[in-house]
Amino acid sequence: MIDATTSAPPPRWDTQPLPEIIHFVLSRYHEPHREELPALIDAARRVEREHADKPSCPRGLAAQLAELDAELRQHMAKEEQVLFPAILSGRGGPMVHMPIRVMMQEHEDHGASLQRLRDLTGGYVPPPEACSTWLALYAGLGKLEAELLAHIRLENEVLFRRALNG
User: Fold this and answer.
1) CA distances (Å), 97 to each of 59, 70, 91, 92, 166, in order?
2) What are the pLDDT digits (tens) for 39-97?
């Protein structure tokens, strides 16, 4: 176990080079989102199938997760194929203004998707009759939300702001 008193503090992203921030976003957020969402979708399908007769069953959760997965994959592809290469080539400022506006609007949409997930699951609080899959699913959803919000915050408040300032 890592001792919090001896671990290195997180980097100050406002002073890190943009390529380092982009690399961090790709490795820390993009790849894990791509890996974790399909597993969450599968778990949601199992819970919905096995507990369909219970009033506490989060009906429609798998569909909402699949929609979020599709949205995120499309969003991340735009960042990876258009926006990040533009930033890395030094074409910041006005050249990235419109792509960043689009990405920030999509971040708002992701926030709304997370709220729908919260609403469907009662804030990721499993019911007393929840099985181990259900418990793991809700724990995974809480982690996904925290990670996605941190991802969005880093892009909106640091990466995009700095890219716009050239």
Assistant:
1) 40, 24, 10, 8, 10
2) 999 999 999 999 999 999 999 999 999 999 999 999 999 999 999 999 999 877 788 99
SS3 of residue 14 by DSSP: helix
**Phi-psi category of 3—alpha, beta or left, where left has phi over 0 and alpha has psi -120 to 50?**
beta
Residue 41 to residue 89: CA distance in whole angstroms: 36
Return the percentage of the chain with pLDDT > 90, whole number.
86
Distance CA 83, CA 17 (A): 16
Taking alpha carbons only, the member of 114, 131, 123, 133 closest to residue 33 is 114
